[in-house]
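Marked as duplicate of an earlier ticket. Keeping the data here for the record.
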Amino acid sequence: LDGPSVPELFQKGLHGPFLFEGAKLDTDFYQMLSAVWPKITGWKLAVGFQNTSHDDFSDLAALVLAVPGINVNNALGVYAYPDPVQNFHAMSEYVNAFFDFALLGRAEDGILKKPDKKYPEVVFENPS
């Protein structure tokens, strides 16, 4: 989830399955992913979350709403603007669908095949 890959992935590659969820505002991760994407030969998917940054992939984004006096509107791209809880649910749903597919052998469902209208902040990426 929105983090750098391990060096072995850059050197040896991977025969999937591979899911990457990343912040749309942080192009460094997409540049990193572009370098390794061709080395991932199995099933792979990269999804970007619009108006997010790296910190949005932790529980900080949802917990900050409980801080008295915080103005979330001034935190565009820092707290999964406009709805950190919605983004948390979207991130979780993609991870759950991926694990069901990759670990439990369930069919690749709709959310892994195309963007879901329920989550307009999520876009499918092609890093190569």
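See parent ticket for discussion. The chain has a mean pLDDT of 78.
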